[in-house]
Amino acid sequence: MEKKVKTHTQAVHAGDRKKSGRHIPVTTPIHTAASFFYENMEQLDRVFGREEPGFSYARYDNPSNAALEELCATLENGHGALACCSGMSAIHIALLTALTDRRKSVVAADALYGATVNLLLNVLEPMGVAVRFVDICDLDIVERAVREAVPGCVLMETISNPLLRVGQIDCIAAMAKAAGAAMVVDNTFATPLLAKPLDLGANLVVHSLTKFLSGHGDVLGGIVVSDTAHFDTLRTLSRTFGPVLGPFESYLAMRGIKTFAVRMERQCTNACRVASWLATQPGIARVHFPADPAHPDAATIRRLLPDGLYGGIVTFELKNAKRDQVFRFMNALRLIVPATSLGDVHSMMLYPAMSSHREISPKHRERMGISDGLVRLSVGIEAVEDVIADLAQALAKAAPATRHA
Ligand SMILES: Cc1ncc(COP(=O)(O)O)c(C=O)c1O
To answer: Whose C-alpha in 8, 26, 238, 366 is 20 to 30 A from the C-alpha of 360?
Structure first.
């Protein structure tokens, strides 16, 4: 697919219509075969040796995943992609790819999804990888950390989970490159509609496909999109570890991605309206949303995110609230689904201290700015008036306890 066409067009067309026998299916079918047959051993040998295009064994590659990978690589302007069975497996293999033949040291944003923090602290660090967390939105701090740690990898999220901080990917990628480090960016919250980190100098981009890209809450998956330099290592590691996505999940993800750009536009618009409304509510102590002119990264947001597209997540703090008030508020929701995940067509609310950041110690959580009154709302594509009405009635029900707290 030509790179000239726009993201909305790529999302609908890229990856499809590969010849399958005498037919060309208009959309990519689900290929469930675990292995592939050739008329003679010589041809299979060439396919195994990657001298001829084709598929040999589904852990290596299969046509459903290949279509999804081509789609995601197109959307992110990458050289190639690897479809994984979850966002976490994608982050894991992206970090291992980045650290192959490099110093076993990571400089990571201190604002990251909780399981990514766990992966760094509880899996990679015990295996000998040095990990240093930094305020990724302060370029002086990042510069000092990169100079001192000389890392093999720098890791950040485009829009951080859950506080929606936005770092200067392009400047940080330049620092990483100068230090010989690879730059890995988790672009889950932004999607390729808002940002394309490879264009800004990143080497590997990761998504939890489970979220905005698939968008319907019916598939768990991840993707790593790679530049040219890292693609062979990524593929080789994947052939050995086997974190691959199943073909049915590939089909669901691809079907979802066709509409991601229009969904995302609607979610961004709805989220702007919800954030503005929340900011006027007396029961709300603080609203985190990238459109806010007082956002700590407002200048970066103006420079790097497109006008009017600030993501579909709004994070806010209930005034003086602790766990029981937050539970009362979330129990009172009638339309917004209080469940774990984000980016779906339906609005969802999550309590980070209990779920996404549960495994992180309370002290570490406090340092990250994740208080006991903080909730994360993923705004769906519903009529925004209905989402606001639901928030209003739930806030009213939680209000007496909130006032007396
Ligand atoms: C920013 C971000 N990255 C990665 C993940 C992990 O994705 P998955 O649950 O598909 O493994 C999540 C999950 O919430 C996330 O929010």
So the answer is: 238
